[in-house]
Here is the input.
Amino acid sequence: MNPTSSALPTPDEPTETGTRQIRDAIRDAIVERRLSPGTKLSESDVGNLFNVSRTLARAALQALSYEGLVSVEKNRGAFVAYPSPDEARQIFAARRLIEPGILREAAARITQSQIQHLRQLLLEESRLIGERGQTARRAEIKASGDFHLTLAAISGNTIMQRFMEELVARSSLVIALYGQSTISSCGHSEHGDIVSAIENKDLDRACHLMLHHIAHIEADLDLRERKGQGLKEAFDL
Amino acid sequence: MNPTSSALPTPDEPTETGTRQIRDAIRDAIVERRLSPGTKLSESDVGNLFNVSRTLARAALQALSYEGLVSVEKNRGAFVAYPSPDEARQIFAARRLIEPGILREAAARITQSQIQHLRQLLLEESRLIGERGQTARRAEIKASGDFHLTLAAISGNTIMQRFMEELVARSSLVIALYGQSTISSCGHSEHGDIVSAIENKDLDRACHLMLHHIAHIEADLDLRERKGQGLKEAFDL
DNA sequence: ACGCAAAAAATCGTATACAATTTGGCATCT
DNA sequence: AGATGCCAAATTGTATACGATTTTTTGCGT
Here is the structure.
């Protein structure tokens, strides 16, 4: 129906205003890697930080827990999720499973203006890659994920869109934990190739490129068990 | 690794005990259609019903809201979700998109004992179809969904498993709202055919059957806008 | 000094309390 | 009689309070 401005921000449904803000703020912080995996998120601290009571802080943390971005342990508190290698594999397996499908849907209903929107995203991404500094790096991470999210939005299925939001966010955590190469985001040129394939209506090629792209990200991971943040193991190698 | 007993009940992670029980109880009630779409779920009532404070009742309702089974409206309260025709289409589109993938994964790693487990589920399903009465009908609905959920469990991907749980639950709501035929569950024989195809290692056929199966369920729906439970439109036709 | 036990502090789990908003009813006016 | 405005009841939004559990600190004995 409408271009790309699908139901991304959710009109007004999610009940209270405060919880939503807090949830989104923390989620962004996690996705942009300003919060490291394993970081403790005390209810009181979160509440104080956002000037709300523990009630709302707790609600936000529980929501994030449902998305798999924070893990809450009974009577111990909430922590930024620390995905295990197995979880990481499942996250990427899930992406391999659903992204081709989303791509086909998106390609089927994509409009010219949406293609232009995608190209603009890519341009912005390139610009950020060129820049230096933490801020640019964080924006680059977000932009890289936004490409996949925009594709999901174009597909027109808000449910798949939400699934992808979760998977992209969790992928960011995985890359933060297990990523090897310094390049924080995934191969940028691959995004462009996918858009080109879509534009040429070559669906099979687009899907193939997408799978290759995901495999490429995954190949950059060193999926070995890592215990708590910094202990003996850190000095053994 | 292990047969079918994957991480279905989630060991102990989901924080508090009470909230989880309430959430599961209400979810079951919705899936088994003891709660109709649109039914108001007052926080006080829910709390009294389960002998807990509004705090826990509210937490449970918010969790269900995140799963799409209840919709909470600011300052108005929580209601059993009333999926729109468009939402219904998206739910089934999502299922068509991911179930073949799950099926392939499941077929790839299925063991003999898991096949037997599936066959046993089918047997139980047939038995329930034969029986009469509300209780049997409800059990039949649950069994029908359990087939798809078990397949997801066999696939070994807990993330996709959770997605499927949400989709199956929401499908139940959609069928309750828009289903036409009296037969509450989807074609039982189709489940059996899928298992056979898996057993014969005929993946393409299994996927084809699965898509056909989902289409079959969807074809039984009358996806036309229905406004609130009973108003003028109810008398116009 | 080191290890262990008990107390103190911090943090979570749940209930209750109060403020804000909505809903329904009653009185009043046209 | 019907419509309108206002007040009371009910319900949600948020904060605070209290009990339970975990973690840290402290102090003692060996």
